[in-house]
């Protein structure tokens, strides 16, 4: 069990984490016809918009209530109502996902009560649009908590409660924020290959996969449909990926009785095997030939990659679930986690990270702890630390803005784990320094050492 070291610095140096409201907006972007709405100042939304745009290289639908000084003093209810009605009239969204920021949370505004009054007062104007509130103050948590709260809020606010007639082929999948667009597409294809019907919440593969619609759409144009969220109770099973998704999975079980199974990670042979075994049991079908072939390819890749990664020292900085995902992957290949840094210390996942200690901190802590490591694993803001330390960097997580296609990187199940092995090994090989001829000649090495010893004695 890893020992979790709390943050002790009074100021962050090269921050590692992104804010809760950004994580909530990220989740709302995975809903078809959605519009995330930041309830706070314009700067909060602008910062999130820049990060999301740079990461995905796409147009991001995101709005704000634009609280100014006067609204901050007298309260933001009127601004919230005005913003909701304007969005309804201009963009006709199927869902408006409201993400609170530190500005309104610090004032301790009753945003939930305000929203309930708006729904009751403006019921006619808001017909056809769901309003969902996620309480996500910037001063607490990080992107992982924001994502989880948004998904929980959608389930609690939209899903029809009570026991429903179960569809034996319907499966609810709740992916964490660290599951990429390519991962979600691969998940869907794998589940469908067993004859099952997956409902993925949220599904960013439909909204942020790089497709360009034939006409301008002011909201998201793909992802999970609101109707599907409403009917989640008809599923036979819920699969949550990452400890962050335990909360929404429990909410679904409490509302509808749908049982859930939680996977801390789907990367690595053991984790992929567990997932395939579950699909086999649910469908009562043998794993398809392409799945079995992918498993054999992964076994071969593990054998080949082990010679290059065994004994390597790895330094990782990320949100808790992604930290475990990649730490588990690297230790499974024989590497050692010598530095592990994360954003918050509340996740239960941190206790099973295969490292002696996990530091809650920033990229300054990673740079301090990573000296002597063979590889750095974090997002694009870690590039300066990697350059100063002279250590190669593999970019994972959010944001990745200095490389193209990060959302299409496959990291899970047999195929994704195989691809990760190849990527990591190629980076390690590209940064190896071949030994010189003198270093290979033991006689030459002894002669050089004797000369150094003679020089030292002469100076004494």
Automatic annotation (TrEMBL):
Outline the extent of the Nitrogenase/oxidoreductase component domain.
Answer: 19-428
Q: Which InterPro entries does this UniProt record tie to the protein?
A: ChlB/BchB/BchZ, Nase/OxRdtase_comp1, Nase_comp1_CS, Nase_Mo-Fe_CF
Query: What keywords does the record list, in alphabetical order?
Result: Nitrogen fixation
Query: Has the keyword Metal-binding been applied to this entry?
Result: no
CDD domains reported for this sequence: Nitrogenase_NifN_1 (cd01966)
Which molecular function terms from Gene Ontology are attached?
Answer: nitrogenase activity
- Return one Gene Ontology term, BP aspect: protein-containing complex assembly
Q: What Pfam families does the database record attribute to this sequence?
A: Oxidored_nitro (PF00148)
| Classification via Gene3D superfamilies | 6.10.250.1090, Nitrogenase molybdenum iron protein domain
Q: Quick one: which pathway? A: Cofactor biosynthesis; Fe-Mo cofactor biosynthesis
Family per similarity comment: Belongs to the NifD/NifK/NifE/NifN family.
What is known about what this protein does?
This protein may play a role in the biosynthesis of the prosthetic group of nitrogenase (FeMo cofactor).
List the protein's name.
Nitrogenase iron-molybdenum cofactor biosynthesis protein NifN
What is the native source organism of this protein?
Answer: Rhizobium mongolense USDA 1844
């Amino acid at each position: 069990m890893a020992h979790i070291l709390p943050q002790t610095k009074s100021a962050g140096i090269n921050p590692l984490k992104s804010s809760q409201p950004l994580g909530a907006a990220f989740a709302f972007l995975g809903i078809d016809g959605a519009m995330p709405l930041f309830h706070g100042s314009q700067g909060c939304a602008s910062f999130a918009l820049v990060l999301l745009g740079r990461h995905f290289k796409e147009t991001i639908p995101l709005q704000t209530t634009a609280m100014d000084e006067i609204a901050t003093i007298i309260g933001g209810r009127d601004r919230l109502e005005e913003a909701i009605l304007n969005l309804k009239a201009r963009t006709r969204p199927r869902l408006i996902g409201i993400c609170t920021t530190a500005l309104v949370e610090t004032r301790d505004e009753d945003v939930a009560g305000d929203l309930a009054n708006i729904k009751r007062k403006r019921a006619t104007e808001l017909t056809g649009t769901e309003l969902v509130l996620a309480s996500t103050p910037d001063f607490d948590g990080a992107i992982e908590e924001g994502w989880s709260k948004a998904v929980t809020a959608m389930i609690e606010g939209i899903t029809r409660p009570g026991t429903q007639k179960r569809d034996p082929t319907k499966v609810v999948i709740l992916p964490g924020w660290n599951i990429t667009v390519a991962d979600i597409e691969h998940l869907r294809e794998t589940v469908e290959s067993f004859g099952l019907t997956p409902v993925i919440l949220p599904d960013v593969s439909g909204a942020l996969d790089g497709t360009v619609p034939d006409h301008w759409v002011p909201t998201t144009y793909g992802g999970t449909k609101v109707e599907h969220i409403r009917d989640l109770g008809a599923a036979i099973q819920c699969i949550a990926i990452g400890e962050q998704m335990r909360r929404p999975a429990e909410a679904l079980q409490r509302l509808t009785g749908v049982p859930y199974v939680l996977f801390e990670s789907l990367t690595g042979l053991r984790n992929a095997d567990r997932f395939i075994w579950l699909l086999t049991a649910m469908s009562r079908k043998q794993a398809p030939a392409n799945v079995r072939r992918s498993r054999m390819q992964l076994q071969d890749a593990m054998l080949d990659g082990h010679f290059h990664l065994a004994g390597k020292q790895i330094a990782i900085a990320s949100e808790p679930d992604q930290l475990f995902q990649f730490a588990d992957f690297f230790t499974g290949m024989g590497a050692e986690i010598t530095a592990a840094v994360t954003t918050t210390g509340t996740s239960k996942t941190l206790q099973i990270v295969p490292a002696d200690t996990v530091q809650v901190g920033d990229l300054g802590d990673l740079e301090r702890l990573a000296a002597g490591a063979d590889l750095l694993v974090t997002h694009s803001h870690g590039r300066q630390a990697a350059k100063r330390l002279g250590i190669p960097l593999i970019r994972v997580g959010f944001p990745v803005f200095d490389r193209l296609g990060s959302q299409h990187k496959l990291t899970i199940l047999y195929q994704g784990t195989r691809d990760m092995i190849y990527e990591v090994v190629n980076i390690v090989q590209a940064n190896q320094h071949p030994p010189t001829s003198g270093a290979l000649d033991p006689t030459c090495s002894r002669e050089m050492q004797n000369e150094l010893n003679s020089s030292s004695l002469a100076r004494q």
